[in-house]
Amino acid sequence: MHARTEAPAEAAPSWTGEIFSILQRFDVRQVPYVPDAGHSDLIKRVLASSTMRGIPLTTEEEGVALLVGAWAGGQRGALLMQSSGVGNCINMLSLTQIFRFPFLTLVTMRGEWGEFNPWQVPMGSSTQAIFELSGIKVLRASHPVEVSEVVEAAAGQAYNALTPTAVLLSQRLIGAKVFVK
Amino acid sequence: MSRTNLLDRREVTAALLRDRKDAIAIGGLGASTYDIAAAGDHDRNLYLWGAMGGAVMMGLGMALAQPDTPVVVITGDGEMLMGMGSLATVALQKPGNLSIVVLDNEAYGETGGQVSHTSATTDLVGVARACGIADSRGLDTMAEIEALAIRLQDVSAGPRFASVKIDPANLERVLSHRDGIFILNRLRGALGFKPI
């Protein structure tokens, strides 16, 4: 059996705190997620927040539908997931066109930068194209210094212009997960 | 799992919504949306013509955003089967104001009447209860439906789940609005939200 080394115990990168602050500033209230190591610090912050509700999902498509309901009820949301979860969302992504609601998703990428696990590569390779084919704008952050600017722009156009937007947080940014025996 | 004395889906839906007050109603893809339309168009209706498996999650998002307003999802067994995981997600959030009603004809009526899993093996009430929705019941009589119509106004005692075995006859379609942007913004307007 292979033991799996989770995200190193060192301090979380500062950009996760920046993302949290941006979501706060945009008055995001519902944060559905399927866990990913790259999102673990942000998820902790959301679950500890008094203004945001973190909502664990059984599958990512639930989160797209949830955000429709949230917006119908007057609240903004943002969906956190890993690239492999994007494929689970495809039919539900049609809701962004049907309802024209403010859709923002932050996607941690796998399968593109020093990946160890071949099972992550196919979906990671098609993530961006799937979003674009689904009518969703894609912005990408690959370096810590640009995360804040990219997420700010994405949140701005999602919430102010009802332009459905996905932010891809590159595996280069997050760091490839280390698998050791 | 077939039973006798099956209820009429239009009567069930009409009874649930007759004294709805401020309740928001979400109709799952297919006949449930026609049933809600047949009960009368309403600013607080959200009709789905697609997004199969998503009705309960839309209800959850709305219920969490509007905790003082009753939210009732009325959907079919096929739509519910596709989104069964959402029952686990709902149970974890415990929205007191959310009610889920499955009109179970044990078939995919919209596509030719192919039998669904509930016709033979799957017990959706058991699924909902096992997911953690303690108030999960199978309803067999109109008296029980009338009682649910009253209970769903209680925004503190949910979430609740009910499965109603209904007559599988395909009824005349009553077409609701299909323009999602209109439907959504009309609902938001009814809740007091202005367009961006």
Q: What is the structural class of chain A?
A: alpha/beta
- The level of helicity of chain A is 40-55%
**Uncertain residue segments of chain A:** 1-5
Q: Which percent band covers the strand fraction of chain A?
A: 15-25%
Global geometry of chain A: globular
Q: Gyration radius of chain B, to the nearest Å?
A: 15 Å
Spatial order of the strands forming the largest sheet of chain B: 2-1-3-4-8-7
Please report which band the strand proportion of chain B falls in: under 5%, 5-15%, 15-25%, 25-35%, 35-45% or over 45%: 15-25%
Class by helix and strand content of chain B? Answer: alpha/beta
Q: Briefly note the CATH topology name of chain B.
A: Rossmann fold
Describe the protein:
The complex is a heterodimer of chains A (181) and B (196). Chain A has 181 residues and is an alpha/beta fold. Chain A has helices spanning 14-25, 40-48, 60-72, 83-86, 90-93, 95-99, 121-133, 144-161, 171-174, and strands spanning 28-33, 53-56, 76-77, 79-82, 104-108, 137-141, 165-169. In chain A, the strands form two sheets. Chain A has a four-stranded parallel β-sheet with strand order 4-5-7-6, with helices on both faces. In chain A, helix 1 (14-25) crosses helix 2 and helix 1 (14-25) runs parallel beside helix 8. Chain A is globular and about 50 Å long. With 196 residues, chain B is of the alpha/beta class. Chain B has one domain (9-190): Thiamin diphosphate (ThDP)-binding fold, Pyr/PP domains (Rossmann fold, 3-Layer(aba) Sandwich). Chain B contains eight helices and eight strands, in the order αβαβαβααβββαβαβα. Chain B is globular and about 50 Å long. The termini of chain B are far apart. The mean pLDDT of chain B is 96. Classes of the chains: A alpha/beta (181), B alpha/beta (196). The A-B interface holds A 29-30, 53, 55-59, 61-75, 77, 91-92, 94-95, 98-101, 160, 162 and B 24, 26, 46, 50-55, 57-66, 69, 83, 85-86, 88-89, 92-93, 180-181, 184, 187-188, 191-193, 196.
